[in-house]
Every structure is written in structure tokens, then in C-alpha cells.
Amino acid sequence: MINKINTLGGYFHEYQKSTLDPESFWAQQAEFFFWRKRWQHVVQWEFKTPSIRWFDGGKLNITENIFEKNLYTHGDQTAIFWEPNDPNDAPRQYTYQELFHAVNQMANSLKREGISKGDTVIIYMPMVPELTIALLACARIGAIHSVVFAGFSAQALADRITNAEARLVLTADQGYRGNKVTPLKTVVDEALSQCQGVERVVVYQRAYVDVSMTPGRDVFWQEFISNASDDCVATEMDSEDPLFILYTSGSTGQPKGIVHSSGGYMVYSAYTFRNVFQYNNGDVYFCTADIGWITGHTYLVYGPLLNGAKIVMYEGVPTWPDAGRMWDIIAKYQVNQFYTAPTIIRSLLSMGNEYLLDKDLDSLKVIGTVGEPINEDAWHWVHDHVGQSQCPVVDTWWQTETGGVMISPIAGVTPTKPSFATLPLPGIQPVIIDNDGVEQTGNSVEGNLCIRYPWPGMARTIWRDHERFRQTYFANYENVYFAGDGVRRDEDGYYRILGRVDDVINVSGHRLGTAEIENAINEHPLVNESAVVGCPHAIKGQGIYAFVVCPQTSTGGEEGVKLSIKQGVNKRIGPIAKPDYIQIVSNLPKTRSGKIMRRILRKIAEGDASSLGDTSTLLDEQVIDEIIQGALVEV
Ligand code: WTA
């Protein structure tokens, strides 16, 4: 079993070992797994190019570590409890053995289709067990999966299909989320009319509704897997072969395809899952994240399944049919570890405590949060009311790029402090660097969060754009990974994440690049230009505030234009990127060299025009007065 830290002293001991001799530390963790061939080097790295290789020379398949390695001991144990959107529909369950067969059958079907090691497969599916099966089937045969969140638009999907060079798409007829139905197949059809290369679309029938099927290209899931054997020998992977690509937003318009490895990611996801959540065999673990995001990859699929965990996978949304749904699910499955996002906690908190009345939450042992800073109110509410002051709350800081949790309490071991991610996990060496590149040592300091040494779960590259990988994470400061977040280390050495320091905003825990949203707005025929910034939002954490230059508002008037801008963003990216505020302005504040002064717009959107800082480089200072007067929030 993976080493588990049980005491604070044990944590400090492991941490020290991991920094004094990282190679021995990680080799020891890797011993737990089944390698077809042992690695030759634990790690080889340099951050200049950068080149990062973990367990080089090792051969493995991650699914062999989920299945074959464990079937003798817990083949009959539940792997997935699946809870449907509608509480009146029948739930489903898979044991490890059953999941293994389903994965193999899909794997063989993909092979029959000609998909093999190194090919990319796009997965655009709702939260049904077949989504997990799809990921693992790809991993089984060495195909690189790229899951696209099922809330993304046709255009966003087409961009990702093109960038990933996928030949095959796995989707469903429809998805259910609360009282909404998403016509996934229709979105796929629209996406495929805008891109090339896809030869096969496999459609899982979730709703059994009529969908248009293109002859020769589209096939239903049942038909696709029919007659395929449920026995499939895993494809041998090199430790450094890519396991998956997951797209995320950066400061420029184009999403980045973050690439994760087979060996290092396996070790890191499993190690961090076991330790952060203090998972014990037999516990029931529930993660609310969609598999379309990294949290779903690492802590709903790979981390838990590598540990033989029993997971609860939920199809719907937290507030449907009412705001007690999460608590019903916890009671129904007697959930022990509950991993969710601050935005969900805030939205449930805002609906009042009555939804918690009479709910049996006694099984809970650990509550985790991820995705954005958790404010103190939300922390206290979840700690006092959901955890009944009995459960440690682990505020876990990490990113798509880091592969797994980096800074977080170890549940029940690390003393917590509301809104603090507390201390780094073993193997993780955070450093704080100011804007001039000077490291801030000691406690009570603040600056840019960087990491000094590689860790097995870190991303290896951006798909087909290694130079962008270098520039984004390794070029700002020498010899460290730059996370893009601001951080404070307090007087006790505890870390508090302060939020992004780049042009990325975090809406309900979803990362969006402001440039991405601006591009979508600028496609509107009446818009000349725009600037997007984040603004405080009680539930979402950050909302989206767009300043738009739009000289003619045509027949629909201002409101008509705003509505069509929102529709445009919805179509280009998806509903999560729709602005909360659109302010039509005659001009944007620009420097003489033509650069938009976002700092000023950010302040206005935050409702604070009292300290705009130096505005002397502005071309036209008057424009600021106009923007403040027309502001849509109280300034
Ligand atoms: C933010 C999600 C504060 C942060 C796993 C980071 C957090 C970005 C926390 C990554 C936390 C994530 N406290 N901020 N506990 N967790 N973030 O790639 O800004 O979707 O850079 O990965 O979310 O978002 P991503």
C-alpha cells in the first residue's frame, strides 16, 4: 500500500526526506506500483529548455495498476457508485471486475477501429460511467485521451479537435444537468462541420432520443462495442509516453493542451490521493468535479481507482432538485470523503441551513476544496455545518499543469487555518519570488508562487507547442516552475493563495483567459474592441466584466447589442464565459503606445476608483471619468 503519513511529526520527517533526497523519496513511492520493467533513472531534468523525465526507462500501463494488480484482493468490491441526475432514476454500480470488462471491451473496439498507441481521442460526454470507461479504455491501449468539458460550445470543441488532431470522437446523444438537457450530438455535428480529420463518432445513448447519424461516420456505442471481447492485454507504455491532453486557458487567446505523462502522473495522483484525503480501504469517496476538468481526471478517476477506492460519481448539479442534493447523496452512500469547490459551498450556503436539517452526515470524515481561494465564511460554514466541526477541511492548491495537489493540509494531520492551503506536500518545494526575480525568504512575505524542483505529476509540455510551455512556466524566473498565482507565506510559514497574477480569471473555479473572452466579443460585427477583467462575485468568486467599444448599437439598442454579445460568447466558448456585466464605452483607457491599461479597468470593476495609481501615461485621461460614471457596479 502507498505510504500514508499519520502524524504531524511524520509529515515533517517525510518532507525533509523528500527535499534532502528527492530521488530516493520518489523511488520509494514508485515501488508500490506494478512496472513491467523497472526505471533506469528516477528523474532527469533541466528547466531551461525544459526537459523533465521521471522514471525513465520504466515500462507500465496505468490500467494494469488499477485492475490486474488489485483484482485478486478487491475485484468484487464496488469501484463506482453512479448517481443519476434525477433522484428517481435508477442508480448504477460497477465492481472493479465489471469495470475491467467494460474497459477492455471498449479498448478492443477502439483497436478494431484502428486506434493505437499515440493516437488522440476526443471525449465529449456527460457524467455517466461510460465516460470513465472511455478514459480507461484509451489508457489501456495507449491512446491519448483529451476530454472536452460537455459545456463547451461547438466552436471550442472544434478548436480542440483540430489542435489534438483527433480521428475519433466519443460522445452521447444528450446530457442531463438539473432541469437542463444538453444536445451533445448536435454540438458535435456542428463542431465537425468546422473541422477536419474525424472519421468516426461513437454515440452513447443516454437519453435514447432521435439524433442525426451521418452514415459511415457515426455509430452508436452499443453497436460499436458489440462482439468485442472483454479481454484485452494492456499496451506497454514508456514512463514518459503521454497519457492525456487536457486543454486549459492561459493569458493569450488560444487554449493550451497540457500534456501529462504515464508513469509520473500515476505515482503522483495515487500518492497525493491517499495522503491528502487519508483514504482507508473501504471508505466511500465522493468528488463533485466533472471529469472535463483536471480535478475529475486526477481525483475522480486515476487517483482513487489506483488506490482501489469506492467512488461516488454524480451526473447532475448540486442544487437540483433542491439544495439538499449533495447531503442526500452523502447520506445515501455513507460518504467518508467529500471533495468539492468553494463556489458550490457558497451557493449552498446562500440558500440557508434548512437544507441540512435531518440529513445524516455522520459518515463524513474529510472535506476537501479546490479550484479557487475559499473565503473564510464559506470555510467556517462547511466546517461547522457540513462537517459538524468534526471533519478537517483540506483546502488543496494545485493546477491542471501540476497534475495533482501541491500545497494542502494532510487531513487530520496538518493543523488547518481558514483560507490557507497550509503547507506543501512532500516533494514540493515552493519559493516566493518578487517581480524583479528576487526570492523572498523567511516568513511574512508575499510574491509570485514558484516551485523549485520537479515532481512526478507535473506537465511535460503543451501539445505541439513546447516553446509556449517554456515561455509560460519557465522563462519568467530562472530554474523554477512559475505557477501564475500570487501567494503569501505568513508568520507561521503557512501558505495562502492570493489568486492569479496574470490575465486569467477564475469563474466558479473554471479558468478563463480574458483574451479568449475578448476574442469572442470582438467577433460581434458592431464591436470595435473590448477589454475583459474579473470582478468580485458573491457565488462565483470572480465574475466577468467586459468594457466594450461599440459606436453604433443599431436597431436593438444597447440592451439588444449586449444580449447578442452574450449569445456570441456563448456560441464561441460556452455559457461559463458569458459576461456578468457589459459596459459600452466610447474608448478604452490606453497608454500612448496603445496598450490597454487593464490595471485601471480592474480597479473600476472591483468598485474601487479611489486608488487608480499612476495614470500619467494615459493618452486620454477623460475616458476614465466617463467609464467610472457609467460603471455597472458601485464605484
Ligand atoms: C486556482 C484546478 C486558491 C489557482 C485544480 C490556480 C486555487 C488555478 C486553489 C488552477 C486553492 C486552485 N486556493 N486558488 N485551493 N486551487 N486554485 O487549472 O489560481 O482549473 O492557478 O486547476 O485555480 O485552476 P485549474
UniProtKB/TrEMBL annotation:
It is an enzyme of class 6 (ligase). Residues 11-65 form the Acetyl-coenzyme A synthetase N-terminal domain. Residues 516-595 form the AMP-binding enzyme C-terminal domain. Residues 67-462 form the AMP-dependent synthetase/ligase domain. It comes from the Bacteria. It holds the Pfam family ACAS_N. Its EC number is 6.2.1.1. Gene3D superfamilies: 3.30.300.30, N-terminal domain of ligase-like. Keywords: Acetylation, ATP-binding, Ligase, Nucleotide-binding. One of its GO terms (molecular function) is acetate-CoA ligase activity. Belongs to the ATP-dependent AMP-binding enzyme family. This is Acetate--CoA ligase. It comes from Celerinatantimonas yamalensis. The lineage of its organism: Bacteria, Pseudomonadati, Pseudomonadota, Gammaproteobacteria, Celerinatantimonadaceae.
